[in-house]
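Quick one: structure tokens for this chain, please?
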Amino acid sequence: MQFFNFIPDTAQDKINSLLKEYPIDIKVVGKRKTKHGDFRKLPSGRVQITLNEQQNPYRFLITLLHEVGHHIAFINHGFRIRSHGKEWKNCFRSVSVPFLVEEIFPQPLLAVFAQHLKNPKASSDTDQQLGLALRVYDPPTHKKAIFELAEGINFSLDNGRVFQKGTQRRKRFECLEIKTGKTYLFQPNAEVIQMD
């Protein structure tokens, strides 16, 4: 299976067993900016999970488990449940627990992922601790997370839009778009390009 190249070798047997129990078409696509993966039922009745190509095998595996959790939640509860409601949280947690072993996840990441599963967020990026723990295993980059920038520093996005970092509101940072003067909220782990 093509996607096996993206997960830790030590997780492959468990994933194989999981996919025998829950047959799913898995498609790996180029990196998308707005999501790591998605789940959908195709007109044919088959189920498809689309995952971003990823050099971090742990991020890829967590995203795969997240999406399999959606599949199981919809099998058990139908399509009228909230996408990331309690039904999904319970299914994501139960499908992930067998993978919570040091043979699959390095100890520092294992502890943070276990903590994340107590009350999973809609995305690993919105859990600051998990996002930080996963970044350690990402390939080196010239980008920084917004929380690493000092207040008042300008930064840009991949699309060229330029912002100035402002104050933190509860969890997210208010940032002023220089061109329009509008204020936007950014997750602390959002990766941006610091400007001199």
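The chain has two domains: 2-135, 144-194.
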